[in-house]
Design goal:
The protein is α+β, with helices and mostly antiparallel strands. It is built from four helices and nine strands. It has one domain: Endonuclease, Chain A (2-Layer Sandwich). The strands form two sheets. The chain has a seven-stranded mixed β-sheet with strand order 1-9-8-7-2-5-6, with helices on both faces. A two-stranded antiparallel ribbon has the order 3-4. β3 and β4 form a beta hairpin. It is globular, with a radius of gyration of 15 Å.
Length: 173
């Protein structure tokens, strides 16, 4: 199955349906990262980081690769969830990352334009959100190729040849 996600379908399908159902791992690769909020019971909104922390508490590994440091509001939210400082939370900063990819349990892969922000993957109103497009697939060959590529990045195998180390705040290798 391969499905086109447009605009708010990113939030509905990925953030509300697929990511919370993860049982093994969630890998998120994004250029931009902000303090995204999601719907919670009772009509409230809570940080998406709470969803990730709850997954970690249920033994799901989270891998987050992003291009720039998040802002102070994200960091404040991050500090509220001690589970995010554990062996089950892997984070890498790489200023060359521009891809937006999410892999869940090796069963689902998303590739598209949406960043980990309220206007990208979040629940923003149709009149305030970004115009996003992406593909969601369960095609195992595509998923495996993406996972191999993300692993190369995460393990620092691209750092050796990177010609932008002068702008990298935290080289992996």
């Amino acid at each position: 199955m391969t499905e086109l996600l447009l605009h708010s379908a990113h939030y509905q399908k990925l953030v509300k349906d697929i990511i919370p159902q993860a049982t093994r791992f969630v890998w998120i690769v994004t250029a931009d990262i902000k303090d995204m909020y999601v719907e919670a019971p009772g009509g409230r909104y809570e940080p998406f980081l709470r969803v990730l922390a709850e997954l970690i508490d249920s033994s799901v590994t989270i891998r987050l690769i992003h291009a720039k440091e998040p802002g102070p509001r994200f960091r404040e939210d991050f500090d509220r969830f001690p589970s995010l400082i554990s062996d089950n939370f892997e984070r890498v900063l790489c200023p060359r990352v521009h891809m937006k990819t999410i892999i869940v349990d090796g069963k689902w892969a998303y590739v598209g334009s949406a960043n980990l922000t309220g206007a990208g993957l979040g629940p923003k109103n149709e009149h305030r959100r970004n115009f996003e497009a992406g593909i969601l697939t369960d095609d195992t060959s595509i998923i495996q190729t993406l996972m191999d590529d993300i692993d190369e990045l995460y393990l620092g195998n691209r750092c050796r040849q990177c010609q932008r180390r002068d702008v990298c705040p935290d080289p992996i290798q």
